[in-house]
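ok trying this again, last paste got cut off
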Amino acid sequence: MKDTNAAILDVVNLKTVFSTRDGEVHAVNNVSFSLKPGELLGIVGESGSGKSVTMMSLLKLLPMPPAEIRSGVIEFDGQDIRQISDEELRRIRGGEIGFIFQDPMTSLNPVFTVGFQLVEPLRVHMGLSRKAAKKRAAELLELVGIPDAPARLKDFPHQFSGGMRQRVMIAIALACDPKVLIADEPTTALDVTIQAQILELIKELRQKLGMAIVWITHDLGVIAEIADRVAVMYAGQIVEHAEVKELFANPQHPYTRALLETLPKMNEARGTRLASIDGQPPNLDHTPVSCEFSPRCPYAFERCRKENPQRREISSAHDVACFWDFTSGGPFDA
C-alpha cells in the first residue's frame, strides 16, 4: 500500500553550475528539501539567492550548456527525474508538475490565442479531442475567475490585463491536474489589489484540488499568509527551514532575522526609515568554503570565516545552517 504521508517531491544535495566566459557560477549548492501531497512550501530570499534556478533545475528547464546539474537526486513520485528519458520528462512537465513563470507579460506567446495555449497541453498530456479540450479550457478560465470564458478563448494575450494574464498562466499550469504546482514569484509584477486576488485564488484552488505547491518569493508577508513551511535561501543554499509560525516566532539564522527586520511594522512612527541588510550578496564563483553570509553578519566569528555550516536540527520541524546559537546567545557547541 502506498504511503499517503510520503513526499511527492524529494530533492537531495542538488548542485547546479553555470559555465561562463569568466569561469563557473555555483548557483545552487547542495540544496535539499521535500514536499508532501497537499503541502505548500515557501522558498524565500533576495534576488540572486538561487530560488528560481533551483526550481528550474528540477524540470531541466535551464539551457544545458551553459547550465549543468552537477550532482543530486530529484525524486518525483518515486522516480528520479535525473535518470528518466526526455520523453518521460516531457510527460511530467506541464502534466504532473505545473509551472507558473515569473512574468505573465512575457510568459504567454503573443502570436497564439489564449485558447490555443490552453488547448494544446490538454491534447498533448491528456489525449483529449479538440472539442473536449476546448470545453475543458473554458472551464479552467472560469475556475480562475475570468468572466465570459468561452468567448475569451479567442482573444490574444495583449487583450488581457496583467492580472488576467496571470490568471491565464495559472489556468495553463492547472490544465492537466498536476500533483505539484511550482509558482515562481507569480504576483511580483501585479499591483497590491490584484496580488491579493491571486493569493485568494491559489488558496481556494489548493483547497479544491489538493495539490502540493512550491511558492517562490522575496515577500515574507505573502509566505506568512499562505505557506505551511518555509525554506530561506542565501547564496544558493538553504540556510534555514521551519514551519511558518515557528520561523516567524523563532528565527535562528542571522539572515532570516535580517529579512524579518526589513518588513514594515504597524507600530513604527511615521517617517521611520525601513531597515536594510548592509553589504552585498556574495560572488558565486566558487563552492562555499565558509559561511557566505559572514561578511554581512553582526554575529560572525572566526569559525564562520573558515567553515561552511551545515544544517543542524533545532527541533523536529526546524533546522538552520549557522554556528551561532540564539538560545544561548553564543557560538553553537558542535
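PB: full thing came through this time. The two ends are 40 Å apart (CA to CA).
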